[in-house]
């Protein structure tokens, strides 16, 4: 069971005054963070994650803006997934994982005692690195989320939700004739899109994607990138990727992590053309990582 | 100059590499033969083990079936009985009370006397009466109870003969042995031969074996009582051990914090699985019978004892099944906002179910064949009546086999084997059911 240190309400309400300098002392370059901006959907302040003794994420402060795609890049093991998972408290299920600092969704601390994880995860959906459809039919895969949250009361409503989710995930035409077939019988790329459809079926506000294209061919990757671009209109998206090109193509903002630190977070354009930090420059030009 | 030198150097280093490679492939080749040999040897051991196991199995089946198949038929005598109120000792009464006190035995004896008017000596008559089973009187009683109007008429019945005559008919009594050492004397053999020549004696399907409870007389003894007892015992065991075992496994695997206490519990469960079953019998005797005052010899108590014995097996198997569910499925469900309980009920349990069922069925098969702990709580009693509820006195199939194997009568030898066959049939059926169930749940797409 994960132990989570929740912050006191005072800290929750005024994160900007609680740690105004901690951010900068960590050496994060880019736009200085003063507090959650107007359009910040998710904001992290001095967020650290420990796996037992291991300090995997070190005091990250970051804003994720609404209706934007934010990309996390960085060498393997630098804590991208760790940070991503702490945004919808998936770290809670890891034994010995501990999160400190503040993470706020719409200005409210998600690690506060009164927050219901179930509700949080309905608002912050997740797509995993490895496609993980349920061993049930395609229909059931998509319908599961809406069903447990009671989002569709009749069969017709549910059919609509399933269809629109699959359509938005760009999978509808491929599977509309075999909705009762097992979701695990699809190809890897189709499975990943099914997982995306499953995630958007509960209409989350934020979608977290952990290397969604790492197992996919270029065509499937292109489809998913297109999809991400479309989804941006309605959702706030965070994507972890190892591909510089992908980050450059799909994201508006990019955050570069290194050894558990957030090194730089800025507009994607800025990061790729004129990084402020030499670590970032080294990474994007392929000198290490 | 420089290039030429480099050329030379390169060729020498290339030569080095080449010779090294050839040396390596030589070594590999030299080793290959012994590698293949050891592989072939290993395969031979495996095949040998399988053959040995099969031979044992065939031997087992051949001996059991060879000894036991005759128990499925019973020698019966076609007896024509001139029924009368006087012979039955009830005069003109035909009501239920009269039928209850009627002396059917006397009526059978009378009809045997009619059949052989030439047999007059006291001893001869006693020997003659002894050739027909007590079951004859029961058969007559049942026939008359069904239709009292038959009294006064001639009734023809198939009645079982005594087990020694049954053995004689099945050729298991050697006529050449001296009379004193034979179960059947010369006079009885003479009568038997006359029955054969009259064509009134023959083999019929042994319904008693499948419909009756235990009896001192082999020809009347059946396994139905023990089968029903086994059934009740297993039902109690299943009804208790499956839910409790699964619940315990789910709690330990999914909810319990990992600390010293749960480690201790885990070690203890593993140890309990290895405790000799008779110890559970002693525990059951002390706790269920003496402390809680449950009825002796009852399937409830037996089921409880077997539950204790089964729980560790089921818990261990269920935990393994839960562990084998990929964490990605849990993450997927939790990531969608399913609660922990929903994740377990909707995704983890269905995937773990085949493994849990396998463990349960293995445990139940164990329980079906278990004798020792049931002896401790008195299920070894001689029970004639078929148990009607799990609270009635009963015995179980393996205990019945044990009891019969212990009986001196020859006819119980074949019945022992027959009972073993029935028990094995039960086991095979259960395992087949397990496979089917697993197939049904195992839609692992
Ligand atoms: N469950 C865990 N228990 C202990 N340590 C962990 C656990 N998960 C991750 N870590 C450690 O935390 C650090 C960050 O891991 P994380 O998975 O966030 O890296 P990442 O940036 O996602 O890497 P990649 O790009 O390879 O996926 C690593 O050093 C890793 O070893
Ligand atoms: Mg990762």
UniProtKB/TrEMBL annotation, chain A:
Example GO BP: phosphate ion transmembrane transport
Transport as UniProt keyword: yes
Gene3D superfamilies per record: P-loop containing nucleotide triphosphate hydrolases (3.40.50.300)
Compartments in which it is found: Cell inner membrane
Signal peptide bounds: none
InterPro entries in the cross-refs: AAA+_ATPase, ABC_transporter-like_ATP-bd, ABC_transporter-like_CS, P-loop_NTPase, PstB-like
SMART domains xrefs: AAA
GO CC terms: plasma membrane
Keywords: ATP-binding, Cell membrane, Membrane, Nucleotide-binding, Phosphate transport, Translocase, Transport
Region Disordered, residue ranges: 1-40
Top-level taxon of origin: Bacteria
Main function: Part of the ABC transporter complex PstSACB involved in phosphate import. Responsible for energy coupling to the transport system.
Name of the molecule in the record: Phosphate ABC transporter ATP-binding protein, PhoT family
Organism: Insolitispirillum peregrinum
Automatic annotation (TrEMBL), chain B:
Main location: membrane
Limits of the ABC transmembrane type-1 domain: 227-434
Record field: transmembrane: 42-65, 223-252, 272-292, 298-322, 361-384, 418-437
UniProt GO molecular function: phosphate transmembrane transporter activity
CDD domains, per database record: TM_PBP2
Keyword Transmembrane carried by entry: yes
Topology in membrane: Multi-pass membrane protein
UniProt keyword NADP, yes or no: no
GO terms under biological process: phosphate ion transmembrane transport
A single Gene Ontology CC term: plasma membrane
Keyword annotations from UniProtKB, A to Z: Cell membrane, Membrane, Transmembrane, Transmembrane helix, Transport
Subcellular locations according to the entry: Cell inner membrane; Cell membrane
InterPro entries (UniProt xref): DUF3333, MetI-like, MetI-like_sf, Phosphate_PstA
Family (UniProt): Belongs to the binding-protein-dependent transport system permease family. CysTW subfamily.
Family annotation (NCBIfam families): 3a0107s02c (TIGR00974)
Protein name: Phosphate transport system permease protein PstA
